[in-house]
Amino acid sequence: MRRTLVTVVAMAVITPAALAACGKDAKQDSAWVGTPAASGSASAPAKSEPVTESATVPVSLALTPATGKTGVPLSTEIGVKLAGGKITGVTLKDAKGAAVPGKLRDDGTSWIPGRTLSPNQKYSATVVATAGDGQTTTQTTSFTTMGKPGRKTGTGLYLFDDRTYGVAMPVVVEFSPGVKKADRAAVQRRLFVSTSPAQPGVWSWTSSGTQAYYRGPEFWKPGTTIAVRVAVGGLPTGGGRYGDRDRSATAKIGRSFEMKVDNASKKMTVVQDGKTVKTMPVSLGKKSTPSSSGVMVVMEKKEATVFDTTDTDGDEGYVTDIEFAQRLTWSGQYIHSAPWSVGSQGRRNVSHGCVNVSPANARWLFDKTLIGDPVTVKGTGDKLAYGNGWTPWDLSWAEYIKGSALPVPAALK
Protein backbone atom coordinates (compact mmCIF):
# COMPACT_ATOMS: atom_id res chain seq x y z
CA MET A 1 0.00 0.00 0.00
CA ARG A 2 1.59 3.21 -1.12
CA ARG A 3 0.19 6.58 -0.26
CA THR A 4 0.29 10.08 -1.56
CA LEU A 5 -0.46 13.51 -0.16
CA VAL A 6 -0.85 16.54 -2.33
CA THR A 7 -1.05 19.34 0.24
CA VAL A 8 1.93 21.52 0.98
CA VAL A 9 2.89 24.05 3.61
CA ALA A 10 3.82 26.98 1.48
CA MET A 11 2.39 26.00 -1.84
CA ALA A 12 3.36 27.87 -4.94
CA VAL A 13 1.47 27.67 -8.22
CA ILE A 14 1.40 23.95 -8.61
CA THR A 15 2.20 20.85 -6.63
CA PRO A 16 4.53 18.29 -8.21
CA ALA A 17 2.80 15.06 -9.07
CA ALA A 18 2.59 12.74 -6.09
CA LEU A 19 4.86 9.72 -6.37
CA ALA A 20 3.94 7.22 -3.67
CA ALA A 21 4.40 6.42 0.02
CA CYS A 22 2.94 6.78 3.46
CA GLY A 23 -0.04 9.08 3.43
CA LYS A 24 -2.45 11.28 1.54
CA ASP A 25 -4.58 13.98 3.11
CA ALA A 26 -8.29 13.77 2.65
CA LYS A 27 -8.32 17.48 1.83
CA GLN A 28 -6.03 19.57 -0.28
CA ASP A 29 -4.94 23.16 0.40
CA SER A 30 -2.74 25.55 -1.51
CA ALA A 31 -1.62 29.13 -1.18
CA TRP A 32 0.53 31.49 -3.14
CA VAL A 33 3.77 32.38 -1.44
CA GLY A 34 5.54 35.70 -1.63
CA THR A 35 4.46 39.22 -2.44
CA PRO A 36 5.09 41.50 -5.43
CA ALA A 37 8.76 42.38 -5.58
CA ALA A 38 9.79 45.33 -3.48
CA SER A 39 11.71 48.07 -5.21
CA GLY A 40 15.45 47.80 -5.10
CA SER A 41 15.48 44.12 -4.13
CA ALA A 42 17.09 42.95 -7.36
CA SER A 43 20.77 42.94 -6.45
CA ALA A 44 23.59 44.44 -4.49
CA PRO A 45 25.17 47.78 -5.56
CA ALA A 46 27.10 47.58 -8.79
CA LYS A 47 30.84 47.18 -8.98
CA SER A 48 32.35 49.70 -11.38
CA GLU A 49 35.68 50.01 -13.12
CA PRO A 50 38.49 51.58 -11.11
CA VAL A 51 38.67 55.34 -11.62
CA THR A 52 42.18 56.54 -12.35
CA GLU A 53 43.60 59.97 -11.63
CA SER A 54 44.09 60.64 -15.32
CA ALA A 55 41.60 63.03 -16.90
CA THR A 56 42.48 61.92 -20.40
CA VAL A 57 40.53 58.64 -20.39
CA PRO A 58 37.38 59.22 -22.48
CA VAL A 59 34.03 57.86 -21.34
CA SER A 60 32.19 55.65 -23.79
CA LEU A 61 28.56 54.87 -22.94
CA ALA A 62 25.93 52.98 -24.95
CA LEU A 63 22.48 51.78 -23.87
CA THR A 64 19.89 49.16 -24.75
CA PRO A 65 17.08 48.85 -25.69
CA ALA A 66 17.78 51.05 -28.69
CA THR A 67 15.81 54.27 -28.95
CA GLY A 68 12.46 53.72 -30.63
CA LYS A 69 12.41 49.96 -30.08
CA THR A 70 8.93 48.51 -29.65
CA GLY A 71 7.56 45.21 -28.38
CA VAL A 72 10.10 45.13 -25.55
CA PRO A 73 9.49 42.41 -22.88
CA LEU A 74 8.04 43.62 -19.58
CA SER A 75 11.16 42.32 -17.83
CA THR A 76 13.57 44.40 -19.89
CA GLU A 77 16.73 45.75 -18.27
CA ILE A 78 18.59 48.91 -19.24
CA GLY A 79 21.75 47.48 -20.75
CA VAL A 80 24.92 49.48 -20.17
CA LYS A 81 28.12 49.26 -22.23
CA LEU A 82 30.64 51.48 -20.47
CA ALA A 83 34.33 52.26 -20.76
CA GLY A 84 36.44 54.88 -19.03
CA GLY A 85 34.31 55.70 -15.97
CA LYS A 86 31.58 54.52 -13.64
CA ILE A 87 27.79 54.70 -13.66
CA THR A 88 26.64 57.37 -11.21
CA GLY A 89 22.95 57.58 -12.01
CA VAL A 90 20.11 55.72 -13.74
CA THR A 91 16.57 57.00 -14.08
CA LEU A 92 13.68 55.17 -15.74
CA LYS A 93 10.33 56.92 -16.17
CA ASP A 94 7.02 55.86 -17.64
CA ALA A 95 4.91 57.91 -20.05
CA LYS A 96 3.43 59.92 -17.15
CA GLY A 97 6.84 60.80 -15.79
CA ALA A 98 6.64 58.45 -12.79
CA ALA A 99 10.02 56.99 -11.84
CA VAL A 100 10.56 53.23 -11.69
CA PRO A 101 12.86 52.04 -8.88
CA GLY A 102 15.67 49.60 -9.56
CA LYS A 103 19.33 48.74 -9.12
CA LEU A 104 22.43 47.96 -11.15
CA ARG A 105 23.64 44.40 -11.39
CA ASP A 106 26.75 43.54 -9.40
CA ASP A 107 28.83 43.57 -12.59
CA GLY A 108 27.41 46.90 -13.77
CA THR A 109 26.28 45.51 -17.13
CA SER A 110 22.63 46.45 -16.72
CA TRP A 111 20.08 48.16 -14.50
CA ILE A 112 17.15 46.02 -13.36
CA PRO A 113 13.75 47.62 -12.71
CA GLY A 114 12.46 46.86 -9.22
CA ARG A 115 9.10 45.74 -10.62
CA THR A 116 7.60 44.32 -13.81
CA LEU A 117 7.02 47.03 -16.42
CA SER A 118 3.51 47.78 -17.66
CA PRO A 119 2.33 46.52 -21.07
CA ASN A 120 1.99 48.88 -24.04
CA GLN A 121 3.82 51.61 -22.15
CA LYS A 122 6.49 54.02 -23.33
CA TYR A 123 9.51 54.37 -21.05
CA SER A 124 12.48 56.72 -21.11
CA ALA A 125 15.83 55.94 -19.48
CA THR A 126 18.64 58.34 -18.62
CA VAL A 127 22.06 57.04 -17.59
CA VAL A 128 24.91 59.18 -16.27
CA ALA A 129 28.55 58.06 -16.26
CA THR A 130 31.36 59.93 -14.51
CA ALA A 131 35.01 59.94 -15.58
CA GLY A 132 38.01 60.07 -13.26
CA ASP A 133 38.30 63.86 -13.58
CA GLY A 134 34.66 64.38 -12.63
CA GLN A 135 33.42 64.97 -16.17
CA THR A 136 30.00 63.40 -16.79
CA THR A 137 28.46 61.81 -19.85
CA THR A 138 24.72 61.31 -20.22
CA GLN A 139 22.89 58.98 -22.59
CA THR A 140 19.16 58.47 -23.03
CA THR A 141 16.97 55.92 -24.70
CA SER A 142 13.24 55.37 -24.99
CA PHE A 143 11.27 52.28 -25.88
CA THR A 144 7.76 50.81 -25.80
CA THR A 145 6.86 47.57 -24.07
CA MET A 146 4.94 44.70 -25.59
CA GLY A 147 1.28 44.01 -24.91
CA LYS A 148 0.10 41.73 -22.13
CA PRO A 149 1.56 38.23 -22.72
CA GLY A 150 -0.95 35.65 -23.84
CA ARG A 151 0.90 32.53 -22.68
CA LYS A 152 2.49 32.43 -19.27
CA THR A 153 4.71 30.22 -17.15
CA GLY A 154 3.22 29.80 -13.70
CA THR A 155 5.66 30.44 -10.86
CA GLY A 156 5.78 29.94 -7.14
CA LEU A 157 8.09 30.69 -4.22
CA TYR A 158 8.13 28.38 -1.20
CA LEU A 159 8.87 31.08 1.33
CA PHE A 160 6.70 33.40 3.42
CA ASP A 161 7.53 36.89 4.58
CA ASP A 162 8.42 37.26 8.25
CA ARG A 163 8.52 33.51 8.95
CA THR A 164 11.27 31.62 10.74
CA TYR A 165 12.63 28.44 9.12
CA GLY A 166 15.05 25.66 9.93
CA VAL A 167 18.74 25.76 8.97
CA ALA A 168 18.20 23.46 5.96
CA MET A 169 15.41 25.52 4.40
CA PRO A 170 16.29 25.83 0.71
CA VAL A 171 14.98 28.62 -1.46
CA VAL A 172 12.64 26.77 -3.81
CA VAL A 173 11.17 28.34 -6.95
CA GLU A 174 8.67 26.42 -9.03
CA PHE A 175 7.76 26.72 -12.71
CA SER A 176 4.78 25.34 -14.64
CA PRO A 177 5.44 24.16 -17.24
CA GLY A 178 9.08 23.44 -16.54
CA VAL A 179 11.79 25.59 -18.10
CA LYS A 180 13.83 23.83 -20.79
CA LYS A 181 17.61 23.69 -20.53
CA ALA A 182 18.14 26.23 -23.30
CA ASP A 183 16.12 28.84 -21.41
CA ARG A 184 17.30 28.23 -17.83
CA ALA A 185 20.32 30.54 -17.86
CA ALA A 186 18.20 33.58 -18.76
CA VAL A 187 15.69 32.70 -16.07
CA GLN A 188 18.38 32.02 -13.48
CA ARG A 189 19.87 35.47 -14.08
CA ARG A 190 16.62 36.90 -12.73
CA LEU A 191 16.62 34.93 -9.48
CA PHE A 192 18.17 36.94 -6.66
CA VAL A 193 19.07 35.97 -3.10
CA SER A 194 20.85 37.97 -0.42
CA THR A 195 21.75 36.75 3.06
CA SER A 196 22.82 38.47 6.25
CA PRO A 197 25.32 37.48 7.45
CA ALA A 198 26.58 36.79 3.93
CA GLN A 199 26.60 33.11 2.94
CA PRO A 200 27.15 32.64 -0.80
CA GLY A 201 25.10 30.00 -2.55
CA VAL A 202 24.24 28.59 -5.98
CA TRP A 203 21.02 27.89 -7.89
CA SER A 204 20.52 24.36 -9.17
CA TRP A 205 17.71 22.96 -11.35
CA THR A 206 15.90 19.66 -11.19
CA SER A 207 16.10 17.67 -14.42
CA SER A 208 12.50 18.52 -15.36
CA GLY A 209 13.11 22.25 -14.98
CA THR A 210 10.02 22.54 -12.79
CA GLN A 211 12.03 23.57 -9.72
CA ALA A 212 15.18 25.54 -8.98
CA TYR A 213 16.81 25.32 -5.55
CA TYR A 214 19.19 27.74 -3.85
CA ARG A 215 21.55 26.70 -1.04
CA GLY A 216 25.10 27.19 0.16
CA PRO A 217 27.80 24.56 0.75
CA GLU A 218 26.55 24.14 4.34
CA PHE A 219 23.34 24.66 6.29
CA TRP A 220 22.45 28.29 7.00
CA LYS A 221 23.83 29.87 10.14
CA PRO A 222 21.18 30.30 12.85
CA GLY A 223 19.86 33.85 12.84
CA THR A 224 20.44 34.41 9.13
CA THR A 225 18.07 36.71 7.22
CA ILE A 226 17.28 35.58 3.66
CA ALA A 227 15.81 38.00 1.10
CA VAL A 228 14.62 36.59 -2.23
CA ARG A 229 13.36 38.19 -5.43
CA VAL A 230 12.09 36.04 -8.28
CA ALA A 231 12.09 38.77 -10.93
CA VAL A 232 10.48 36.80 -13.75
CA GLY A 233 7.32 38.81 -14.36
CA GLY A 234 7.12 39.29 -18.15
CA LEU A 235 10.41 37.45 -18.67
CA PRO A 236 10.62 35.22 -21.78
CA THR A 237 10.80 31.67 -20.44
CA GLY A 238 10.82 29.78 -23.75
CA GLY A 239 8.21 28.42 -26.09
CA GLY A 240 6.51 31.78 -26.46
CA ARG A 241 5.73 31.94 -22.75
CA TYR A 242 6.50 34.67 -20.22
CA GLY A 243 6.82 34.58 -16.46
CA ASP A 244 3.51 35.31 -14.77
CA ARG A 245 4.73 37.76 -12.10
CA ASP A 246 7.50 38.85 -9.79
CA ARG A 247 7.63 37.29 -6.32
CA SER A 248 9.63 38.13 -3.24
CA ALA A 249 9.95 37.21 0.42
CA THR A 250 12.19 37.95 3.38
CA ALA A 251 12.49 35.35 6.13
CA LYS A 252 14.74 34.31 8.98
CA ILE A 253 16.57 31.14 10.00
CA GLY A 254 16.08 29.93 13.56
CA ARG A 255 18.11 27.66 15.82
CA SER A 256 19.78 24.48 14.56
CA PHE A 257 17.58 21.41 15.06
CA GLU A 258 18.48 18.15 13.31
CA MET A 259 16.72 14.77 13.36
CA LYS A 260 18.86 11.74 12.52
CA VAL A 261 17.13 8.39 11.96
CA ASP A 262 19.12 5.14 11.82
CA ASN A 263 17.40 2.02 10.56
CA ALA A 264 20.04 -0.21 12.18
CA SER A 265 19.22 0.97 15.70
CA LYS A 266 15.58 1.89 14.95
CA LYS A 267 16.17 5.17 16.76
CA MET A 268 15.98 8.89 16.09
CA THR A 269 18.61 11.16 17.59
CA VAL A 270 17.67 14.81 17.96
CA VAL A 271 20.53 17.34 17.97
CA GLN A 272 19.86 20.98 18.83
CA ASP A 273 22.61 23.56 18.43
CA GLY A 274 25.21 20.80 18.32
CA LYS A 275 24.02 18.93 21.44
CA THR A 276 22.00 15.70 21.60
CA VAL A 277 18.76 16.57 23.40
CA LYS A 278 16.68 13.43 22.90
CA THR A 279 16.63 9.94 21.43
CA MET A 280 13.48 7.99 20.66
CA PRO A 281 12.54 4.61 19.15
CA VAL A 282 11.05 4.56 15.66
CA SER A 283 9.46 2.12 13.26
CA LEU A 284 10.21 2.67 9.58
CA GLY A 285 8.79 1.27 6.36
CA LYS A 286 8.40 -2.47 6.14
CA LYS A 287 10.16 -4.44 3.41
CA SER A 288 7.37 -4.02 0.85
CA THR A 289 7.08 -0.26 1.48
CA PRO A 290 10.53 0.89 2.66
CA SER A 291 11.31 4.37 3.92
CA SER A 292 13.61 6.44 1.72
CA SER A 293 17.14 7.07 2.93
CA GLY A 294 18.55 10.54 2.36
CA VAL A 295 18.69 14.10 3.61
CA MET A 296 15.22 15.63 3.69
CA VAL A 297 13.65 18.66 5.34
CA VAL A 298 10.35 19.22 7.10
CA MET A 299 8.08 20.63 4.39
CA GLU A 300 4.74 20.79 6.16
CA LYS A 301 3.26 20.33 9.62
CA LYS A 302 -0.30 19.30 10.45
CA GLU A 303 -1.46 18.73 13.99
CA ALA A 304 -4.32 16.59 12.70
CA THR A 305 -4.98 15.20 9.24
CA VAL A 306 -6.34 12.14 7.46
CA PHE A 307 -4.35 9.67 5.38
CA ASP A 308 -6.58 8.38 2.61
CA THR A 309 -5.13 5.78 0.22
CA THR A 310 -8.39 4.49 -1.23
CA ASP A 311 -7.95 6.40 -4.50
CA THR A 312 -4.56 4.78 -5.16
CA ASP A 313 -4.83 1.40 -3.42
CA GLY A 314 -8.44 0.56 -4.17
CA ASP A 315 -9.90 -2.14 -1.94
CA GLU A 316 -6.61 -2.40 -0.07
CA GLY A 317 -6.62 1.30 0.73
CA TYR A 318 -7.62 2.79 4.05
CA VAL A 319 -8.59 6.02 5.75
CA THR A 320 -6.77 6.79 9.01
CA ASP A 321 -6.79 9.78 11.34
CA ILE A 322 -3.23 10.99 11.95
CA GLU A 323 -1.84 13.36 14.56
CA PHE A 324 1.34 15.48 14.53
CA ALA A 325 2.23 14.77 10.91
CA GLN A 326 5.37 16.33 9.42
CA ARG A 327 5.85 15.88 5.69
CA LEU A 328 9.29 14.92 4.33
CA THR A 329 8.57 14.00 0.68
CA TRP A 330 6.03 14.69 -2.05
CA SER A 331 5.37 10.95 -2.21
CA GLY A 332 4.01 10.88 1.31
CA GLN A 333 6.83 10.07 3.73
CA TYR A 334 6.11 11.65 7.12
CA ILE A 335 7.14 11.66 10.71
CA HIS A 336 3.91 11.12 12.67
CA SER A 337 2.25 9.73 15.75
CA ALA A 338 1.56 6.00 15.43
CA PRO A 339 0.02 4.61 18.64
CA TRP A 340 -0.70 1.33 16.85
CA SER A 341 3.01 0.63 16.30
CA VAL A 342 4.42 1.61 19.69
CA GLY A 343 5.17 -2.04 20.45
CA SER A 344 7.25 -2.31 17.28
CA GLN A 345 9.07 1.00 17.61
CA GLY A 346 12.76 0.43 18.28
CA ARG A 347 12.38 -3.25 17.30
CA ARG A 348 11.01 -3.74 13.78
CA ASN A 349 9.66 -1.86 10.77
CA VAL A 350 5.92 -2.00 10.15
CA SER A 351 5.00 1.31 8.48
CA HIS A 352 4.14 2.13 4.88
CA GLY A 353 7.26 4.28 4.54
CA CYS A 354 6.73 6.84 7.28
CA VAL A 355 8.77 7.38 10.42
CA ASN A 356 6.46 6.14 13.19
CA VAL A 357 6.97 7.51 16.70
CA SER A 358 4.90 7.34 19.88
CA PRO A 359 2.17 9.94 20.50
CA ALA A 360 4.22 11.59 23.24
CA ASN A 361 7.36 11.78 21.09
CA ALA A 362 5.36 12.94 18.07
CA ARG A 363 3.91 15.82 20.09
CA TRP A 364 7.34 16.70 21.51
CA LEU A 365 8.85 16.85 18.01
CA PHE A 366 5.89 18.76 16.59
CA ASP A 367 6.23 21.44 19.25
CA LYS A 368 9.98 21.80 18.60
CA THR A 369 10.35 21.69 14.81
CA LEU A 370 10.30 24.37 12.14
CA ILE A 371 9.62 24.05 8.43
CA GLY A 372 13.09 23.56 6.93
CA ASP A 373 14.57 21.49 9.76
CA PRO A 374 16.76 18.71 8.34
CA VAL A 375 15.86 15.03 8.69
CA THR A 376 18.42 12.39 7.72
CA VAL A 377 17.33 8.78 7.32
CA LYS A 378 19.94 6.11 6.69
CA GLY A 379 20.17 2.36 6.25
CA THR A 380 16.84 1.60 4.56
CA GLY A 381 16.23 -0.33 1.36
CA ASP A 382 15.25 2.68 -0.71
CA LYS A 383 17.20 5.76 -1.85
CA LEU A 384 15.54 9.16 -1.87
CA ALA A 385 14.73 10.31 -5.41
CA TYR A 386 16.04 13.79 -6.21
CA GLY A 387 13.12 16.19 -6.45
CA ASN A 388 10.88 14.03 -4.25
CA GLY A 389 10.55 16.82 -1.73
CA TRP A 390 13.00 19.65 -1.07
CA THR A 391 16.07 17.54 -1.70
CA PRO A 392 19.04 19.83 -2.56
CA TRP A 393 20.89 18.76 0.61
CA ASP A 394 20.77 15.13 -0.49
CA LEU A 395 23.49 15.81 -3.08
CA SER A 396 27.15 16.51 -2.39
CA TRP A 397 28.14 20.11 -3.16
CA ALA A 398 30.11 18.96 -6.22
CA GLU A 399 27.04 17.18 -7.61
CA TYR A 400 24.62 19.90 -6.63
CA ILE A 401 26.36 22.74 -8.48
CA LYS A 402 26.27 20.75 -11.72
CA GLY A 403 22.61 21.74 -11.88
CA SER A 404 23.39 25.44 -12.27
CA ALA A 405 22.57 26.92 -15.68
CA LEU A 406 25.21 29.64 -15.16
CA PRO A 407 28.95 29.37 -14.44
CA VAL A 408 29.64 28.79 -10.76
CA PRO A 409 32.03 31.31 -9.16
CA ALA A 410 35.48 29.82 -8.67
CA ALA A 411 35.28 30.44 -4.93
CA LEU A 412 32.24 28.15 -4.72
CA LYS A 413 33.51 25.27 -6.83
Automatic annotation (TrEMBL):
What pathway, per the record? Cell wall biogenesis; peptidoglycan biosynthesis; Glycan biosynthesis
**Per the record, GO CC terms?**
extracellular region
State where composition is biased (Low complexity): 36-49
Keywords assigned by UniProt? Acyltransferase, Cell membrane, Cell shape, Cell wall biogenesis/degradation, Lipoprotein, Membrane, Palmitate, Peptidoglycan synthesis, Signal, Transferase
Q: Which GO terms describe its molecular function?
A: acyltransferase activity; peptidoglycan L,D-transpeptidase activity
Active-site residue list: 336 (proton donor/acceptor), 354 (nucleophile)
Provide one Gene Ontology biological process annotation.
Answer: peptidoglycan-protein cross-linking
Pfam families the UniProt entry points to? Big_10, YkuD
Residues of the region (Disordered) are 31-53
Per its UniProt record, what InterPro entries does this chain match?
Big_10 (IPR041280), LD-transpeptidase (IPR050979), LD_TPept_cat_dom (IPR005490), Transpep_catalytic_dom (IPR038063)
Which chain regions cross the lipid bilayer?
Answer: none
Q: Which domain of life is it from?
A: Bacteria
Residues of the signal sequence? 1-20
Q: Where is the L,D-TPase catalytic domain?
A: 257-378
Q: Would you tell me the protein name for this molecule?
A: Lipoprotein-anchoring transpeptidase ErfK/SrfK
**Which classification does the entry list for the species?**
Bacteria, Bacillati, Actinomycetota, Actinomycetes, Micromonosporales
